[in-house]
Write a structure and sequence with these properties.
binds zinc ion; 2 domains; four-stranded antiparallel beta sheet; mainly beta
Amino acid sequence: MAEKTDCNNHKWIPLLGINKGKSVPTSLFTCLKCGDLKVGSQTIKISRFRLDMGELPINNVAGIKLIEAPTADQTVSGFIVGMTYGESIAKGDLLYFKSDGKVYKADANGVSTYPAMGLALATASAGSNNVLLRGVYRDDTRYAFTVGGVVYLSTTAGTETQTQPAATNDVIQVVGIATHADRIYFNPSADYITHV
Ligand SMILES: [Zn+2]
């Protein structure tokens, strides 16, 4: 199984259950393809590439390795949470967190529409949707970055730019670094300065 894909067609084999040629009841299985374990009807997502623990924390690891170069357009690797959209938002849009507890498109020359704190991972107008807090996002259509350059919140709502906003009262906030023409290391600064 590749590291970046999920196993959608498990081939379960029993780990226990044969005793001198006689089948005995068992509830412990493993998938020959991906290595997932299953106890009864419940799959335990654990293999050389993954460890899912439901809502439980991971308490003892040397590191959490993210994918630096997502292989497909509009894919991501990073810290992701579910947040409620307060307006129509497109995948890739930069978001700020509003006083009503919802996220909206961030805007460097709006009124209290910053700092950007998330990157939308779904196109929707309402409801809870995945938002990237920090990580790598790829978008082949949206981005045409100068590699290695800083990415700022732009003065067009929801968008990013590599040209620092320069008008009076524009907010200058670094939201990430371009690691490829089509990829951003999204790492939004909570600090911003206002252009005088
Ligand atoms: Zn499998």
